[in-house]
Amino acid sequence: MNLSQFDDNARSYLEKILAILDIEAEVVQEDVDDTTTCYRIDCKSDDARILIGKNGATLESLQFVVRQMVKSQTLDRSHFIVDVCDYRGRRRRTLEDQAKRGAVAVLNGDSERFPLVPMSAYDRRLVHNYLQENFPELASESEGDGEGRHIVISFKGLPDGGNGAHHDGGDEDDDFVPAEEDAEEGES
Q1: What is the pLDDT of residues 127-186, one digit of tens each?
Q2: Are 10 and 80 in contact (CB under 8 A)?
Q3: Which residues pair with 81 in a beta bridge?
Q4: CA distance 17 to 153
Q5: Measured between alpha carbons, how far is 43 from 83 in angstroms, rounded to an integer?
């Protein structure tokens, strides 16, 4: 299946789901970067609330369903996100503001370790990347399990109470570990 067929299928599946839900909307395809496409659903605000759900849970589920439907058709490119009325952009800005407040609290000495509220793996990855790019002197680590999994911001190299530099609970793919720390750990 070529890229054009992939895009047509993902968009077509979304349009069919919206029709079943009796939601009038336009699905706009946008390239996020070289490997990721965003299918943005533009609709009325009442319909947007239904599609987004509490804390984006319905939107995540919609994206999962479409991804599974497309995956059954191809093993090729499946890097895409589904967005509704720029919810993900607004959510990203909110998460970055929370991360910035936590980073400033650590930098000002108000807190050695600043925990953020629990969030999805996707949101944690956004926060880890934001902190890495904007606060290189700080470390971010995911802690907790399941729905309680959250990020803790601290200075790099700060001991975490003798539990080692990393936690051992599931979902490790969202943790940010700078390359130089990996090298140092390998030498010990």
Answers
A1: 999 999 999 999 999 999 998 999 999 998 766 543 333 333 334 445 444 444 444 444
A2: yes
A3: 38
A4: 39
A5: 11
Q: C-alpha dihedral over 143, 97, 27, 25, to 10 degrees?
A: 110
Residues near 139 by beta carbon (within 8 Å), at least 6 away in sequence: 153, 154, 155, 156, 157, 158, 176, 178
Question: In degrees, to the nearest 5, what angle opens at C-alpha 123 toward C-alphas 170 and 113?
Answer: 75
The two beta strands, 150-155 and 113-115, are: antiparallel
Nearest Cα neighbor of 65 from 20, 30, 100 is 20
d(CA 107, CA 87): 30
Residue reference for tokens 């943790």:
175
